[in-house]
């Protein structure tokens, strides 16, 4: 009873044993002692927050940020003690930051909830109370009988009970789970396969016992007990009986299955990695810099407090006549007073920690992310899909990627196989318009028609159309359950669809059908083909299944004439050694030619049996298949005996159609210093072939293999051999191929050795990978000592784990569902878009945010250091140098917009240059723009400028107490003119102008918005100060600033001081930039100089008045400037060339780039150059 109460209250975990018992249709035992097990519901959850935990969880995550937590403490301190500034100066910005961030993160999580609701609300049909009930996917319970129709996905992990087929089988594709597009056959047990109606299923009494949920897609152990006529029949269950959530039903009208694993306990969900908060390298650097500034702040506060008490050690300064202590102050504890003064200084200097940095960063990331969606170069017109951003927190991480982990099927390839060439009897053929044309002939040549194919050629086509495991689906659903040859009298090539165990088989069977030998279906053991209009029926006697050791598959058939023949196809190395007749050497040469073209090759052969030979073969196969001991070994012996003395028929060349520009994209990533790893669930032969065709592996590369390792020792020895080969072989590049089983062994105890081999390889290919293994590989690289930034890209549910594990996850909007897209940080339609996403967008985002972070610290050092220096001149009385309004508005209004606009539109180099020169990506790798040296430079620059502000104003104005703007002597006005607020306002004015112009010096890409906010911010400061100081504000407690700014600007000395101090600050910085650019330029600066020297004289003028269509009105002036600067080498059409709206700066921008003759542009989406001569010329 107590245990039952604990279970109902949720204190006991739902699974107490290693197995679970599922009662089909939830027919529980009738005895009263049975307690039903608790299972998860069928909801899929990819979101982070709920309505109930959003506020506490989001606040917890935000206050993990050092700056947020720090300002919370400062705000509480200001509430508790008497401080020089109002609590509003800290509380208001903090509230604004927290609110903006919460709204942004809440909106992004709402999108995830919306996507989850679409999945969980999908309609399904469940058998309940003797009828078929329509309900939502989330309402499925363990034990429910679910009906799934053709082409629908399975809503939970189901044990197959029955299908519309008499034998209880069904066909499924698992492309969204393991990336394989082949057709898989699943089975039901005989006792349940007869239950094909709802009434029969309702009467079914069965219990499924199986293991608890686990992530392995290929493992399932269970049994089903069916009660018939009071007798219990027990049948074993394996992976072939389990239909996984996310897989799709094919070639079967409908099936019924019982749900055994639901929701987050399904194998697909268990292969998802828990969604954690990803933090970019820039954010980590920001936190490090904040800690350093916090130390500087504490140092300044402690030093000021100590100096205050040192100064007050003299009695005349401890209690001057004008500031007598009260009784309470005299009797207060010295320790408490010291703490109170320390906290007061802490509040006075707290603006050195820039809380507005986080607001600006959040706004920059959120607004900047729209540029990815707006980029037409990332729009895929065929599928009408644009790039989408699911998480804007990682924009800058796109510029720091060092490793790319990519899926193969659907990511690098289109998932489409195309028959290209074949070799028959030593003659090469290619397919042209459904005809086989011999090499050297054209379609119109005499004797080129396939109608003349005879002998070996026809036998080859029949072998290809008969030796396979292809299934057929017809548009008419009745064809599946009726006579499979009912179409024979009215055969139509348009109503038939092939499903195959491998995409190669499907491509080959479709090719033979186009040529004239069509596979038309099977009925039991009868296989039918249509050979050039004539139907032929063969009896299928035996199938010798494919296995990775033999690397071939065979069928034994009885021909219409009664003869027995073996057809076999497989890899070259698996067929040619056993061939004794046919054009062996010519075929071998043709296979090598096909492979060099990147085609997937298969060799086809046959063997004719005499009646005596077939009797012997049949006995051997039957004995091996029925053996209870060592069945696999006996089958291998029988297969080897049968598949010999072969007659070679020919070979095929099939192309796995790659996505457009995959090879160029991988090469661009390689030039950018990014290593590409391919992780796939496919067989290693298939994976290697695609790697070679897409340029991941080069033909000249030394391919190393770590395959089929069976023990730790064997794996370790092979790794050592590979490491030795890498050292001994004087080959520039190595490639590594590793399978899933060997990888598990390598990661168990030999991680360091495995990583050493991998890092010395230019490309790594991991095949036969389970989804969680993909995530483990990514984690292995992430946690290595170098801590590289990783990116994972895939299109199926099997890629979700690695997408979530990597620093940046990208989903491909492919044909395998939307799981990868929903769980990714970014989504694109094609792999080729990855190049621009990283090389252009990543580059821009990183340089923008890196400068933003450094600049914020710089301008806050400039802001607070004069406040610290001022304490030396006011007896450390905690008197503020600036008015409280200036304190509040400095970061919010006066200096906020220029850096925000800069961080949205800045471009160091034109986008086309970045794409044509991928090596520029290396200049920003390893967080180089946020290195400690760069950070130190900006910090010291801030301190230098602050000293110049303070002491420049002090020296230039402090001694000049008589000279006014009109030259009059006004000593009586000295206090008004040069008091505390006047001096502070002068320092503040110089500071606002200097930090704004400093950002202008850093800006390379000027748009009208940059001009507007840069000069507008300075103008706004002057206008606001005149307005603020020119009126007596009734709601203010004091009127300290009344007429101060007007009086200051009336002084010629003040104007002189402002100009001199600003020039003194910025001139050395400008000179340093010029010297470094000429004496020690970076690759990026060289590219700037190259493009500028050839295009700037024209484009900078053209950009002012270039019309969207037609000729520019400024062409004469532009051409004249080119001639004066000796830069006009050719007449270039700058308005007719591909001008378009510049998505980065919001203006029309010239797209044509003139490169030097020895640096051609690759064809990676870069517009071709226009050297047409119709430019306007004088």
Automatic annotation (TrEMBL):
Per the record, what are the reactions this protein catalyses? a 1,2-diacyl-sn-glycero-3-phosphoethanolamine(out) + ATP + H2O = a 1,2-diacyl-sn-glycero-3-phosphoethanolamine(in) + ADP + phosphate + H(+); ATP + H2O + phospholipidSide 1 = ADP + phosphate + phospholipidSide 2; a 1,2-diacyl-sn-glycero-3-phospho-L-serine(out) + ATP + H2O = a 1,2-diacyl-sn-glycero-3-phospho-L-serine(in) + ADP + phosphate + H(+)
Keyword annotations for this protein, in alphabetical order, are: ATP-binding, Endoplasmic reticulum, Endosome, Golgi apparatus, Lipid transport, Magnesium, Membrane, Metal-binding, Nucleotide-binding, Translocase, Transmembrane, Transmembrane helix, Transport
Q: Spell out the SUPFAM superfamilies in the cross-references.
A: Calcium ATPase, transduction domain A, Calcium ATPase, transmembrane domain M, HAD-like, Metal cation-transporting ATPase, ATP-binding domain N
Q: Where in the cell is it found?
A: Early endosome; Endoplasmic reticulum; Golgi apparatus, trans-Golgi network; Membrane
E.C. designation(s): 7.6.2.1
GO molecular-function terms, A-Z? ATP binding; ATP hydrolysis activity; magnesium ion binding; phosphatidylserine floppase activity
Its cellular-component GO annotations read: early endosome; endoplasmic reticulum; Golgi apparatus; plasma membrane; recycling endosome membrane
EC main class here is translocase
- Keyword Transport in the entry? The reply is yes
- Give every P-type ATPase N-terminal domain span: 36-90
Return the InterPro entries for the record. ATPase_P-typ_cyto_dom_N, ATPase_P-typ_P_site, ATPase_P-typ_TM_dom_sf, ATPase_P-typ_transduc_dom_A_sf, ATPase_P-type_domA, HAD-like_sf, HAD_sf, P-type_ATPase_IV
Record: active site: 407 (4-aspartylphosphate intermediate)
Please list the residue ranges annotated as the P-type ATPase A domain. Answer: 124-184
So which cofactors does this thing need? Mg(2+)
- Which residues participate in ATP binding? 407-409, 505, 546, 569, 600, 680-682, 768, 774, 798-799
A biological process (GO) annotation for this entry?
phospholipid translocation
| TM annotation in the entry | 66-81, 288-311, 342-361, 885-905, 935-957, 977-1000, 1012-1036, 1042-1067
Alphabetized Pfam families for the sequence: Cation_ATPase, E1-E2_ATPase, PhoLip_ATPase_C, PhoLip_ATPase_N
Q: In this protein, which residues make up the domain named P-type ATPase C-terminal?
A: 821-1082
Q: What does this protein do?
A: Catalytic component of a P4-ATPase flippase complex which catalyzes the hydrolysis of ATP coupled to the transport of aminophospholipids, phosphatidylserines (PS) and phosphatidylethanolamines (PE), from the outer to the inner leaflet of intracellular membranes. May contribute to the maintenance of membrane lipid asymmetry in endosome compartment.
Check the record and name the NCBIfam families matching this protein.
Answer: ATPase-Plipid (TIGR01652), ATPase_P-type (TIGR01494)
Tell me which family the UniProt entry assigns to this protein.
Belongs to the cation transport ATPase (P-type) (TC 3.A.3) family. Type IV subfamily.
Under the subunit heading, UniProt states: Component of a P4-ATPase flippase complex which consists of a catalytic alpha subunit ATP11B and an accessory beta subunit TMEM30A.
Protein's name in the database: Phospholipid-transporting ATPase
